[in-house]
Each structure stands twice: as structure tokens, then as C-alpha cells.
């Protein structure tokens, strides 16, 4: 199933959903296999180290350092990986409110990580698209 590519339709139907929990962006050494027991929502191997996005409580429990916590907003519309402009439109909207946007595009949905303290404000900003 291919997703929606038309930007206007994506913005009108993205239905942002604020997920439960607070997340941490961590960097560490090793391989993702060393951390699979933490069930990271995302990982990326960079030349400087392994980046993990974990529940903040799991990172604390495992004593993996991080700076700040984030809430995950899932855009529940099935966006195509070929769609043009959705990430830019969301980032620009959040920029208007001084909110950073860390975007992860997965197969079905885009996920926006915003600072925990600004999550409610981010949801209000994204609601302006509909």
C-alpha cells in the first residue's frame, strides 16, 4: 500500500497523536544488539557512535546519559516516503512557536519528537493545519 503524496491532503488529514511517555536521545558505543533489551523506538549508527531513542525511564535505569526529554507526536496519516514538503511544513509551523522538531520518517507515519515542556503547545500548533 502506497501512502499519500499530496501535501495539502497530508496536512489536512495528518491527525497528530501525542504518544504516552517521555523519550531520550542517547549516544553510546557498541552495537544495537547490545541494547535491544531496551526496545529502542529508533536507532542510527553514526561515525561518532550509536544513537538510540529510548524511553527516558529506561535510559535512566540503565545509566545511559542524555540531555532533555522529548514527547513523540505521531502523524497518523499514511504518508508516502515519496511525499514532498510534509517535514518542512511541520518544522516551519513549529519554528513559528519556537519549538524544535526532531523528525523520524517510518514506513507508514512520520513521528515528531518535541521537547517535553512544549508538547501541548506543539499539538496546538499542528492543529492549525486542519
UniProtKB/TrEMBL annotation:
DUF2241 domain boundaries: 2-71
Organism (species): Paraglaciecola mesophila
Span of the signal peptide: none
Domain CASTOR ACT: 73-127
Pfam families associated with the record: ACT_3, ACT_7
Name of the protein: Aspartate kinase
InterPro entries: ACT-like_dom_sf, CASTOR_ACT_dom, DUF2241
